[in-house]
Write a structure and sequence with these properties.
16 strands, five-stranded parallel β-sheet, Rossmann fold, 4 domains, Helicase, Ruva Protein, domain 3, 44% helix, 478 residues
Length: 478
Amino acid sequence: MEQATILIVDDEKHTRDGLRLSLEDDYDVYVASDRAEAMEVLKNERVDVMVTDLRLGADDGMKLIEEALAMPHKPVVIMMTAYGSVDTAVEAMRRGAYHFVTKPLNIEELDLLIKRAQRSRTLESENVSLKRQVDEKYGLDRLLGDSEPMKRVFETIQQVAPSRATVLIGGESGTGKELVAHAIHNLSGRPKAKLVIVHCAALSPQLLESELFGHERGAFTGALERRIGRFEMADGGTLFLDEIGEIDQATQVKLLRALGERTVERVGGSSPIKVDVRVVAATNKNLAKMVEDGKFREDLYFRLNVVNVHLPPLRERPSDIPVLARAFLREFTKENKKEVREISPDAMDLLTTFPWPGNVRELRTAIEHGVVMSSGTKLTLRHLPASLRAAPLVLPGSRPAAEAAPAEAAPSCKLSGPPAFPESLNLQEMENLFVREALRRSGENRSAAAKMLGISRRTLHRKLRELGLVDESDDAED
C-alpha cells in the first residue's frame, strides 16, 4: 500500500512532536497547532488521514472536521480527546469523523486505526472509480443518439428508473437492450445493489428453472448440493431477463408467481423465500402475438409489460449513425492504439445508407474492422467490411433493401442503375450518386469504377474533381 500522508493537529507541542516521531517512519507526517495551520496544510497537500484534538486552544476541533470534510480531497478524520464520552464520540461521528481515540494515546492502537482508515479511504476511491467506469460503460451516455425516437427512449428510462415498476424492453437484436437494462439499474434507487443477468435463450427449460429459482440438494440427477438461484442473488437489486420470449410454459408459471408474490421456491424445496427484486425483461419477439398464438401466458405478459421501452432499429434513425460511428471510432482507436481521427465522406455516406440488419451491434463491429484495417489517420471505404461495400445502395425514397436485387462485389460489366432515386435529385446529384456507388462497389479502385461507369480513368478523375470527391493529395494524378 502506498505511504499515506498524515496530518496531526494538536495545540500541545510535545503531543505533536511525540506523534510525529512515532509515526514518521511509516507515514509522511505534517503537524499543525491550530485550525488555521491545519487548513493551510489541507489546501496545499493531499492529506489522507487527519488526526485532530477536540480542543485546539480557542479553536473548536469539531469546526475543523466540518471544514476538512468540505475540501475537494477530504481526509479521513480521527479525533483525539481527553474528554472521551459517548456523547462526544457520537457527535464526532455525526460530523463525519471516521473514529475517535482518548488521551493518553496508545500509539499501537492509533497506528492500527490509521491503517484501517487508510484502507477505508482506498476502498472508497476504488468504488468511486469503479462506479465511474460502470456509468461510462452502462449509463445513458452509452445509448447515443439525438433522433426523436431515441429522445423518447431516454425520457422513458429517466422516468421509470427510480420506480419499482417492472420494465419490458423490446427491439430487434443488436439495438442495445442490455444497455438500457444497465442504465435503468444505474439510475434507480438501488445502483449499489447487484444487477444479475440471465440469458434465457442460452439455457434449457430445466437449467433455466434451476438458474432462476435455485435448487435443493438431490432435487434432480447431478444436484449434489444446494444452489442459490438468480432471484435470490439479485435480492435488493435488479434481475435482467434477456430474451424472455424463450422461456417454456412451466417456467412462465413459476415466474408469474415470483413477480406476483415476491417469493421464490427452489427446485426440490417446499419453503417460499421472500425476495426484493426489480425485474427488467427484454425480447426481440412480438410477445403480444405470442400471447394470441398461445405461446406466452397473457397474465405474465401483463405482469412484465408494466412499462414498455421500445428501441427503434438503426435504419429508422439514420441521423444517429454518424454520432455512433464517431463514438465507436474513438473507442477502437484508443483500444487498438491507432491514430485514426476521422471517417471519410464516402465511408460515412455508406454507413448512413446501409440498412444495418444487425443494428448498432453490426455498426460497432464494422467500425472496429475499419479501425483495425486502417493504417493512417482516416477510415475510408476500403477499410470497411466487404459485405457493406457489396450491399445495394439504399437512399431516402428508394425501395427497401429487402426488395432490391443483390449486387456483386466487383461486377465486370457496366454499372446498372441503383434502386429508384427520389424525384427531387437533379442531374449533378444523380451523377454524384452514381460515381459514389461505383467507387463503393469497387472498394475505391478507380480503374474498376471507371469500367463500371463506362468511362476512362482520366474522365473519372475529372468527374471526381468536379464533384469535390478527390483528395488534394491525389490531384496530381493523371
